Amino acid sequence: MQDSSVATQSHLKRTLGLPSVLLFGLAYMAPLIVYGTYGVLAKASDDTAALAYLLALVAIAFTALSYGKLARLYPVAGSAYTYTRKTFSAHLGFLVGWATLLDYFFLPMVIWLIGAAYLNAAFPTVPTWIWIVAFIVLTSALNIVGIELAARFNIVLMVVQLAIVGLFVALCWHYASAAAGPGGIALAEPFFKGHVPFASTMAGAAIAAYSYLGFDAVSTLTEETIDPKKNMPRAILWIALIGGAIFVVAAYTMQLAHPGVEFKDTDSAAFEVAKMIGGDIFVTVFLAGLILAQFASGISAQASVGRLLYAMGRDEILPKRVFGFIHPKFKTPAINIAIAGIVGLIALKLDVATSTSFINFGAFLAFTAVNLCVIRIYFSGNHGDKKIGVIGGLLFPLIGAVADVWLLASLEKTALVLGAIWFVIGLVYLCWITRLFRQPPPEVAV
């Protein structure tokens, strides 16, 4: 017999219009993240960060179109895991879900690592590891007691972030204009550098894609969105395009103000640029905004890890006694949250570049799977109530899949090796729980 809580969750109230979904998606992406990873991206792309963001946007935009088509065809709370399971098979769906676990597991770690790098730049006498441990302890404690600060202040934080990004862009432009002198600004310089190999820019694009993670998160709101078949595809695409425009403009103006990749600390490069263009007052405002955004984002990311692990424990994909545990007082998956915090300690041994690349391994596999799902549906002829044409059903998702695979291949070797090991572990685990593929894997109800 289905209990009342499950029944309630099965019939969510549709109250969200297109503007609300857009705000949620942009808040989840955290626009200030463009500055958190700028130094790493500039170095990896050999000072072609703006072009790297633009190339990443191409892959993301075509993938967003595929997400939109699948959200229209399956108007339920979805994900790459759900779409692959419905379109191909339960086994492939499981492997895609396993790959995306990398995002969930390591996203909080990267958030804490970036925040610690900037706090260390502001307070160099305090070791970075202290900031990392402080982030982990505080966010873990808040998530265990069930305080949902990030969800409560999402819109306010987004407005603050957009204001800081706007001010940062304006100050960069002013500084670049003053430094250029009578000759004026070389406007095309950030995009066209003949001496930089395209492979370097693609390596940067593979890291830049990290900033776009979350554009698809609104697919989980499908059951709460008004007219989801119309609004969800629009929201997913517009979130990707608006986020991409912010990232490209921010990186472009940063390159104008600070050409080159020489920074005191690559992981906190934007701190150095902020001080250069706006002095102590602006760098204080920037740092406060960035840390606040990182803190709230870390709370949400860790909470997502706990929820996913709980769903897998409840459905007995993982040991139920551990992962299906709910704290009797706080009613939160306390053990899972603690596990996520312990995993975050890996940040003490990793840098931002490696950790973001590791996360993107799972993301690119998921994005590729989504594009392949649309192609499979096109050839199957099962298009739902609106026929999918050759351009939207074959050409665009094929471009998206090729771009995603290219970005995947452009990741640094360490990330590729670690990602491949994780994928093989998932394949072995799938063999075990399905008795060598003779049974379907359990379904994760998230």
TrEMBL record:
UniProtKB keywords: Cell membrane, Membrane, Transmembrane, Transmembrane helix
UniProt cross-references to Pfam families, sorted A to Z: AA_permease_2 (PF13520)
Matching InterPro entries: AA/rel_permease1, APC_superfamily
Protein's UniProt keywords contain Transmembrane helix: yes
Compartment(s) of residence: Cell membrane
Membrane topology: Multi-pass membrane protein
TM region positions: 21-38, 50-71, 92-114, 126-146, 153-176, 196-215, 235-254, 281-312, 358-379, 388-409, 415-433
Keyword Cell membrane assigned: yes
Lineage top rank: taxon: Bacteria
Cross-referenced PANTHER family: AMINO ACID TRANSPORTER-RELATED (PTHR42770), PUTRESCINE IMPORTER PUUP (PTHR42770:SF8)
Protein name: Putrescine importer
Species of provenance: Caballeronia udeis
